[in-house]
Amino acid sequence: MLDSLITSKTRLRLLVKFFVNSNNQSHLRGLADEFGESTNSIRKELNHLTGAGILVRQNDKNKVTYQANIAHPFFHSIQDIIRKYLGLDDLLEQILSRMGDVDQVVLTGDIAEGKDTGQIDVCVCGDQLNDRYIKYLSTRLQKMIDRKVKFELVNKRVKDRGLVLFEK
């Protein structure tokens, strides 16, 4: 649905890249390699987004990096829209509703880096988690959000890995 509002696929990919996780940053060549597109099309969209103040541009020696502008008045709104587009709100709601005593939910893998590859890797931390529910939930979420969801259940909290969506 969002792709009908934002008709530029490059712009949508950039918004996903930078707004799924506000710590994500990248440079022009890295984005061109990641997206498999020309630097010209990416530069054009980066200029539009920095001109609107949605992204910030930082000079690092001879390399220019881009990152989401967390001071922008629409930052949280854009982040919420991108997370809804990816289905992360539905995913979190389903996990917390019937998973058991969940302490932490962390996105790992490509999606934590802002790469929408069609798979969402999720690490769920807690005691006495309902691991029978996982198989059902994985299938159900795949139909709901049109992305494959891969779960990892752990007992200890995850540190320095991924993007924390929920923490008790």
Short description:
The protein has 168 residues and is α+β, with helices and mostly antiparallel strands. It is built from seven helices and seven strands; from the N terminus they run H-H-E-H-H-E-E-H-H-E-E-H-E-E.
- The number of distinct helices, counting runs of at least 4 residues, comes to 7
Order of helices and strands: HHEHHEEHHEEHEE
Instruction: Supply the CATH superfamily name of the largest domain.
Output: Beta Polymerase, domain 2
From the N-terminal CA to the C-terminal CA, the straight-line distance is 32 Å
Which structural class is indicated by helix and strand composition? alpha+beta
Q: Could you tell me the strand content as a percent range? A: 25-35%
Which stretches of 5+ consecutive residues score pLDDT under 50? none
Task: Return Rg in Å.
Answer: 17 Å
Largest sheet: 4 strands, mixed
Summed up, the domain count is 2
Using the coordinates above, name the CATH class of the largest domain. Alpha Beta
Q: What CATH architecture label of the largest domain applies?
A: 2-Layer Sandwich
CATH topology of the largest domain: the name is Beta Polymerase, domain 2
3D shape: elongated
Biggest sheet: strands side by side, in what order?
6-5-4-7
Averaging pLDDT over every residue, what do you get?
89
Approximately how much helix is present in the residues?
Answer: 40-55%
Number of strands: 7
Protein name: ArsR family transcriptional regulator
Question: What would you say this structure looks like, in words?
Answer:
With 168 residues, this protein is α+β, with helices and mostly antiparallel strands. The protein folds into two domains: 2-77, Winged helix-like DNA-binding domain superfamily/Winged helix DNA-binding domain (Arc Repressor Mutant, subunit A), CATH 1.10.10; 87-167, Beta Polymerase, domain 2, CATH 3.30.460.10. The chain has helices spanning 2-5, 9-19, 28-35, 39-51, 75-86, 88-98, 131-145; strands at residues 25-27, 55-60, 63-68, 101-108, 119-127, 148-154, 163-167. Helix 3 (28-35) crosses helix 4 (39-51) and helix 6 (88-98) runs antiparallel to helix 7. The chain is elongated.
